Amino acid sequence: MKILVTGGAGFIGSNFIRLILSRYPDYEVVNLDKLTYAGNLDNLKDVEQNRHYRFVQGDICDMDVVDKVMDKVDAVVNFAAESHVDRSIGGPADFIQTDVFGTYVLLETARQHGVGRYLQISTDEVYGSIRAGSFKETDMLEPSSPYSASKAGGDMQVMAYHTTFGLPALITRSSNNFGPYQYPEKLFPLFITNALEDIPLPLYGDGSNVRDWIYVTDNCDAIDLVLHKGEVGQVYNIGGGNERDNHTITGMILKELGKPESLIQPVADRLGHDFRYSIDCSKVRALGWQPSHNFEDALQETVKWYADNRWWWEKIKGGEFLEYYKQQYGK
Ligand code: NAD
Ligand code: TDX
Q: Which numbered atom of ligand 1 lies nearest the CA of 174?
């Protein structure tokens, strides 16, 4: 089987490629990634010499490039996206371009090539916020941020290509991932690395917003299952079942590192900040998946990974990230 993974140099995509290459030694993986600020070939250093793996630098919005890399591909898994909510508030254009138009280019090319399976990696954020209960796959999409609206736009096109052209397409919508190789703009890696550097942890609002956390390889496991066993035309929610508010997560990270709570710095809330995400995952569980990581152990493992792998994040935090951080906080 030959799989085209797009956005494979990012956080989840790189963890997914590692899993596929180790689990299916005869598969071919082509990784098409533009290498935006979030794309990082260091994430795949350990597999770059694997003869079943090939990296191509390119944009999913470029139909010529996509057409070339889709040659003789059996399946496409699209991770490529602008993925950070705060950046989408600062400037939505790149989000519309990659998450909406880029998805269209992939779908159209997959249709022309007669690709056997197209899997779109989406997010629980497309449903919007929910005070009580959990969203099912059939619930209405009510995205709140330019990021989640762009992702919802991508999802709509995927289903339209399935219904109209019979493209064998599927979608996964996962909750918040954490684990190794996550760009340090997101909550977990930002707070862990800031704490390691003894600099403040900017907690939005009153810290009471709730996310459902999933360890990244548990999500990759579920994606693998849906790719191979999912029913085309279907959506699968993938959640860790670990709902925690941001204040609790922050306290756990600080405790793990033996750092004081005085490092927490309450800052202005995110605009349109969704209060709580929660998804019902009975459908993917019925397919045979369940998370294999206990939340507390996985958090401990993740904190240790960032503490042990300063080489990975110190150079990121010294570059483009600093400019972004300055814009956010004016220092
Ligand atoms: P990420 O930002 O770490 O990685 C995105 C990757 O896509 C990067 O390597 C980047 O270079 C690449 N990319 C961006 N624009 C591109 C383009 N135009 N052409 C080719 N490559 C491009 O993101 P992530 O956290 O790994 O998320 C991966 C996917 O999973 C995204 O689609 C995201 O919406 C979704 N998702 C993420 C989470 C999460 O918690 N991180 C949760 C649910 C869903
Ligand atoms: O500095 C911060 N302070 C803070 O309080 C940051 C970066 C975040 N937060 C809060 C906002 C959220 O309530 O922490 C929570 C998590 O924030 P992010 O890590 O930015 O994740 P979120 O906005 O929930 O979106 C993530 O999960 C769903 C990913 O970035 C998306 O790509 C994915 O679709």
A: 43
Atom of ligand 2 nearest to the CA of 207: 5
187 C-beta closer than 6 A to ligand 2? yes
Pairing of strands 210-215, 117-123: unpaired
User: Which residue's CA is the closest to the ligand 1 atom numbered 1?
Assistant: 10
> Could you name the CATH architecture of 2-177+215-238?
3-Layer(aba) Sandwich (3.40)
Distance (Å, rounded) from C-alpha 123 to C-alpha 47?
27
Please report, in tens digits, the pLDDT of each residue of the chain (331 residues total).
999 999 999 999 999 999 999 999 999 999 999 999 999 999 999 999 999 999 999 999 999 999 999 999 999 999 999 999 999 999 999 999 999 999 999 999 999 999 999 999 999 999 999 999 999 999 999 999 999 999 999 999 999 999 999 999 999 999 999 999 999 999 999 999 999 999 999 999 999 999 999 999 999 999 999 999 999 999 999 999 999 999 999 999 999 999 999 999 999 999 999 999 999 999 999 999 999 999 999 999 999 999 999 999 999 998 777 777 777 776 5
Q: Which CATH architecture best describes the domain 182-211+242-271+294-322?
A: Alpha-Beta Complex (3.90)
Q: How far is CA 219 from CA 5, 120, 122, 137, 267, in A?
A: 15, 13, 12, 17, 31
Residue 154 Cβ < 6 Å to ligand 1: no
The crossing angle, in degrees rounded to 10, of helices 11-23 and 216-229 is: 60
Q: Domain-by-domain residue ranges, the chain?
A: 2-177+215-238, 182-211+242-271+294-322
Model-wide pTM > 0.85 = yes
DSSP reduced 3-state for 37: coil
Which residues, 6+ apart, have CB-to-CB distance to 171 below 8 Å?
119, 120, 122, 155, 158, 159, 234, 235, 236
Q: How far is the CA of 170 from the centre of ligand 2 (A)?
A: 25
Catalytic residues, by residue number, are: 124-125, 147
Distance 82 CA to ligand 1 centre (A): 6
Cβ(229)–Cβ(159) below 8 Å: no
